[in-house]
Write a structure and sequence with these properties.
about 350 residues; alpha/beta; Enolase-like, domain 1; 2 domains; 8-stranded parallel beta sheet; about 30% helix; globular
C-alpha cells in the first residue's frame, strides 16, 4: 500500500464570516491510499482554531507513513495519531479502501442501515441584517438554516431579519464561542420569539460552567467544547446536543464511537463540517443517518465542487455512493488549484 498526499485550494463563492474570522477560500488535504488497482480517498480541512494547516497535517501523516503502508488498521491509527484533520483524512481513506477490498459499501461495513436523504441546514455567515435576509431568500429550497452570530448588538436584528424573510424554515444559531452569559440572556427573548430551535456553542471553551442555571427553553449544542470521544462524558448536564465533526474527532471511526457513547448518555447528536467538498461530506453523511440535526452544506459555500458530488434539493442532501465509500473503483476529481505535498 502506498500513500499519496495532495493539497488543494477551493475558493469560496463569497467571503464567509464567523466570530473572529472571515474565510475566502478553503485549503484541504486529500489522502489517497493505493493497494494495487484499488484506491481509497479521504479529505480533511483540519481545525483552524487548533492551528491545523495543510503543512501541519501533512507532517503528521508523514510520521505514520511506514505503519500505514505496512497495513495498519483503523484502531491502530487511533492510537498513533491524535484527533484532528490528519487522522480524519487517513481514517476515511482506509474506510474507502476497505469498501473496495470487501466489495461492500462503507455503510454496510459500519453496520448501518441503507442511507436516506437528510434534511440539512443551509448556513448564513454573519453580515448586516439585510444581507442575511437576502441570503435566506436566495436559499429558496432550504427548510432549515443556521445563522452565524458574533455576540454583537446587531445579532438580534440579524435573527429578526432572517425570520421575517423566511417564516417557513427551522432556524438554529451558532455563536462560535462569541457570547457571554449576559449577551445571551439579553438575546434569548428574541431567539424565542423568532422560534429558534438550537443555540450552538454560545460560550468559549473553558467557560462551560456559565451554562449552569441558564434558563433556556432552546436546546444548547456543544461544538468547540466537544472535540473527541474523551470529551463526551464531561458535558452531561451542560449541553443538550453534541456537534460531531470528522475533522475535529479524527475520522468516521471515532465519530461512530462518539455517537454510541452520546446516545448512551442521553445527548442528541448533530453532525457538522469544517466546510469541505463532497469528498468530506460523504462520510459525514453516514454519521448524519444517526443524528437529529445535519449541517452538511459545506459544498454550497464553495465556488465549485467535485463531480460526482452530493446533491441538494428541497432542503435535503443526498450523497450518491460513487462519491465515496463505494464497493467499486472511483476517485475524486479536482477543480481547485492543486500542489503535491
Amino acid at each position: 500500500m502506498k500513500i499519496q498526499i495532495r493539497v488543494e485550494r477551493w475558493p469560496l463563492a463569497v467571503p464567509f464570516r464567523i466570530t473572529g474570522r472571515t474565510f475566502t477560500d478553503l485549503d484541504v488535504v486529500v489522502v489517497t491510499l493505493r493497494d494495487g488497482d484499488l484506491e481509497g480517498h479521504g479529505e480533511a480541512a483540519g481545525v483552524y482554531y487548533q492551528r491545523e494547516t495543510p503543512a501541519s497535517m501533512t507532517t503528521q501523516i508523514e510520521t505514520v507513513r511506514e505503519p500505514v503502508e505496512a497495513g495498519l488498521d483503523r484502531e491502530v491509527l487511533r492510537r498513533l495519531l491524535p484527533a484532528g484533520g490528519a487522522r480524519n483524512a487517513l481514517d476515511c481513506a482506509l474506510w474507502d479502501l476497505e469498501a473496495k477490498r470487501a466489495s461492500q459499501p462503507v455503510w454496510e461495513l459500519a453496520s448501518l442501515a441503507a442511507p436516506q436523504p437528510l434534511l440539512t441546514t443551509y448556513t448564513l455567515g454573519a453580515d448586516v441584517p439585510a444581507s442575511m435576509a437576502r441570503g435566506a431568500v436566495g436559499y429558496g429550497d432550504a427548510r432549515a438554516m443556521k445563522l452565524k452570530l458574533t455576540g454583537e448588538a446587531t445579532d438580534a436584528e440579524r435573527v429578526r431579519a432572517v425570520r421575517a424573510a423566511r417564516q417557513d424554515v427551522w432556524i438554529g444559531v451558532d455563536a462560535n464561542q462569541g457570547f457571554t452569559r449576559d449577551s445571551l440572556e439579553r438575546l434569548l427573548p428574541t431567539l424565542i420569539e423568532a422560534r429558534v430551535g438550537l443555540i450552538e456553542q454560545p460560550f468559549p471553551v473553558g467557560r462551560e460552567v456559565d451554562l449552569e442555571g441558564l434558563n433556556s427553553p432552546i436546546p444548547i449544542a456543544a461544538d468547540e467544547s466537544v472535540q473527541g470521544l474523551g470529551d463526551v462524558a464531561g458535558l452531561v448536564g451542560r449541553f443538550d446536543v453534541l456537534n460531531i465533526k470528522l475533522d475535529k474527532c479524527g475520522g468516521l471511526t471515532e465519530a461512530l464511537a462518539m455517537v454510541s457513547e452520546a446516545h448512551r448518555l442521553g445527548f442528541k447528536i448533530m453532525v457538522g463540517n469544517m466546510v469541505g467538498t463532497s469528498l468530506a461530506m460523504a462520510p459525514a453523511f453516514l454519521v448524519g443517518q444517526l443524528c437529529a440535526v445535519a449541517d452538511l452544506d459545506g459544498p454550497l459555500l464553495l465556488a465549485s465542487d467535485r463531480s460526482p458530488g452530493v446533491t441538494y434539493e428541497k432542503g435535503l442532501i443526498w450523497c450518491p455512493q460513487e462519491v465515496w465509500g463505494a464497493p467499486s473503483a472511483s476517485g475524486p476529481t479536482v477543480a481547485g488549484s492543486v500542489r503535491q505535498a
